[in-house]
Amino acid sequence: MSPKARVSGAPVPEDWPIAMRLARLTQRKDFLAAAEHGRRFRSSAFTVQVLDKPGQDDLRLGLTASRKTGNAVVRNRIRRRLRAAAAIALAEQTRKPCDLVIVARPETVQADFTAMVADLSVAFDRARPASGGQRRSARSEERRVGKECRSRW
Question: Which of 59, 119, 129, 152 has the fewest CB within 10 Å, making it most exposed?
Fold first, then answer.
């Protein structure tokens, strides 16, 4: 079977874009690595985390929609919208060797689809490096200092 033919045998016109399925992130450690070491881009509807991986073949996509964004129906709708926006926005960038994690916000459901596509298409260029370490809250810093003081005596 030729690559230009569908399963049914009907030919595909030359000008039709071939839908490319983006590789997905499936393991928790990949999501955590992108969150800890990746560059970030924040939009009104989502946050994008980009982790460059020189040894990798192409782009891998991960989607996150926590329960804060809504119930299961809302979260699934958010993931469908983000997957569709990523397929359009990242069509030319699938050869970049990186992991891309999109963290949804509750505003993603009402966000304009064309704005989401535009934000995703510039996420690679605008993503800023992550902060140089884990941020500690004031309370955890007090606990750490308190333990050090107690261990000295």
Answer: 152
